[in-house]
Amino acid sequence: MLTLKRNEEIIVTGPVEYIIVGFPGNDFTGEIAPALVKLVEDGTVRVLDLIFVSKDAAGNVLSFEYDALEGLAAFAEIDGECGGLISEDDIAYAAAGLEPNSSAAMLIWEDVWATEFVTAVRGAGGVLLEGGRIPHEIVETAFAGLPAAI
After folding, report:
1. Cβ atoms of residues 108 and 48 within 8 Å
2. Separation CA 48–CA 108 (nearest Å)
3. How far apart are CA 68 and CA 52, in angstroms?
4. What is the per-residue pLDDT for 115?
5. Mind listing the pLDDT tens digit for each residue in 117-144?
6. Is the Cβ–Cβ distance between 134 and 111 less than 8 Å?
7. Half-sphere exposure of 90 (CA within 13 A, CB side)
8. Which of 20, 22, 109, 139 has its CA 20 to 30 A from that of 33?
9. Average pLDDT, stretch 74-87?
10. Domain boundaries, the chain
11. Which residues pair with 102 in a beta bridge?
């Protein structure tokens, strides 16, 4: 069990994941915020940290919280728990993958939906040996290659 501190103790039981979502041309409008708000409200995930990274045409990098730009105001609706998990090294890593004049959202969340299963696995003495995400494109290709159901 990972325990994070910020003003009060926060207990994280479920698996923790991260994503970096890129937006070419710095064309980030905040349209993903309502979907993320819904995931939080439904108890599917719990946001632990969220940072935005931008690289201008000259390659200069800026990072900022949702409340720093008017275009990100929709993210204020998210009930987050922690913050401070994404480090300067993480920001540099994300920025290295950005083309000039593009941006990214970096998100760390707890998979609240998996908490009961994770607790059962730990209670049974189980340990995670491996895990990972399979990119959508690979899954889509694999399913396209399967024969039609009978």
Report:
1. yes
2. 5
3. 10
4. 93
5. 999 999 999 998 998 889 999 999 998 8
6. no
7. 17
8. 139
9. 78
10. 2-120
11. 24, 55
- pTM score > 0.85 for this model? no
Question: What residues pair up with 2 in beta bridges, in sequence order?
Answer: 12
Residue 67: Cβ within 10 Å count: 10
The encoded tokens of residue 86 equal 């994404």
The answer to whether the CB of 53 falls within 8 A of the CB of 61 is: yes
Instruction: Measure the CA–CA gap between 19 and 21, rounded to whole angstroms.
Output: 6
89-115 pLDDT tens trace: 999 999 999 999 999 999 999 999 999
- Name the token pair of 147: 């024969």
Contact 108, 12 (CB under 8 A): no
Closest CA to 12 of 3, 20, 21: 3
Angle, CA of 97, 92 and 27, to the nearest 5° = 50
- 29, 27, 95, 38: CA torsion to nearest 10: 30
